[in-house]
Amino acid sequence: MNPTLVRWLQAPSVVLLLIWMIVPLSMTLYFSTIRYNLLYPERTGFIGLDNYRFFATDPAFGPALINTLVLVGSVLAITIVLGLAVSILIDRPFRGRGIARVMLISPFFIMPTVSALVWKNMLMDPNNGLFAAFSNALGLEPVEWLAQYPLFSIILMVSWQWTPFAILIFMTSLQSQDQEQKEAATLDGAGFWSQFWNLTLPHLARPISIVLLIQMIFHLSIFAEIFVTTSGGPGVSSTNLTYLIYIQSQQAFDVGVASAGGVFAIILANIVALFLIRAVGKTLTV
Amino acid sequence: MTDRQRQIWIDRAAVTAAWIAALVFFFPIFWMVLTSFKTEGQAIQVPPLLIFEPTLENYLEIQDRTNYFKFAMNSVITAFGGTLVALLIAIPSAYSMAFNTTHRTKDVLMWMLSTKMLPAVGVLMPIYFLAQKFDLFDTRTLLVVIYAMMNLPIVMLILFNYFREIPKEILEASRMDGTSTFNEIRQIVLPLAWGGIASTALLSIILCWNEAFWSIVLTTTDASTLTAFVASFQAPEGLFWAKVSAVSTLACAPIVVFGWMAQKQLVQGLTFGAVK
Description:
By secondary structure, chain A is an all-alpha fold. Chain A has helices at residues 3-31, 50-57, 61-89, 97-105, 112-123, 130-137, 145-148, 150-174, 179-187, 192-220, 224-229, 241-250, 255-283.
């Protein structure tokens, strides 16, 4: 192919992505430094870092940041541990394994708004939900999950959706593990744990780090689950950074402050992204 | 107990544990589908009903009560539209990158991936502003554009990986025969990479179909997709679990089936090609 043609074929994707990245990004940066509230259109002008200061001193900012970190950290811990355990269980052949696998990964394909509603209503509802029925059957007081433990409830929902993702990735990766090596280890008398630490875990090191990083990217911007179930409440007890920025823009109509919050979110995501890109780059053979 | 007996017991325990895990994870989905066949009264009955006479009422009445098909159409149009646009942009690009790899190709692909790391909420205000400015708020066009750009990096990366598996010799042979580039793509690359393109499309459709930030924030009624429509049931205006379950089951069924079909590509796509 001649070089001109190559350039023309590649141009659309590069140029479009460049626009898609640069235009909104620079607008966010611009909005974050000006006075821009839809309720007070007469107030304008450059105000430096005031929006950032306002966003960071919002009493909800501290809790939202902590909630974000707790949410991401807990979901990561749960999904990785459970994902590892289940994918190892499912690695050995048994009757009906195909069906069990399909059942295990299905939650990942359920749209987030649906899974939020299913958990909120049919499982966690304190009057008619299934969990309440269990509590009643055991003679216990039903728990008002979303009111008493809002953040924990969301962690449960998100873990339910994302453990299947970890299972799917680990399962696929385990299939490429050297079986002869494992058999040799068994013959040498290596027990389950010794094989796990010395063979399986090193084999899964890369998939684990990839799963960690990808989940972090997605979980930093969890939105639909909170929107549908708790709306960030009670108070701000289940508000994360994404939801706080959404509130700033949709309820306070403060474009400037919401943009400053957006910049915070971008910085947070980029710290993670830096590691992810590096991990992915190592595997891309060009 | 001999070692052999012990091993048999461990195997049995492991299989049992695997089935328990499968049942636990699948249960909420099973419960949703089950509830969709109950009457509204049965759906909220305490203690919950496991055995009952199933009714199709919820499914038959969906359209009368909720305009379900409008939202389903919006989901179909935005998911397939966004995917189609992404593919049309990505196929020529990925093709030329795969067959004219330079020292910069990797950097370009990595940069493309990095655009995917931009959190949606970080560009919420500009997108909102631009949508209003161009009169695109609450239109399917807007969602198609956003979904296409959102998935373009992943689509590029997977297609690049597929195209690289096509033996270069085949292309060189056709070039000797004087085939034009357009015909080369159409007659050689597309047929050979067809499976790869189809599964890439499947992955992209799944991601668009389940997208629930932009669809909630950027639509009100006209362009609302199923994710946004389901979200509108969050308001506690009354209990209609059976109906919501029917809507949810219909909204999720095709994508769950797609997901089962595209497992392998999904792994590759979701890990940006790092796990195959």
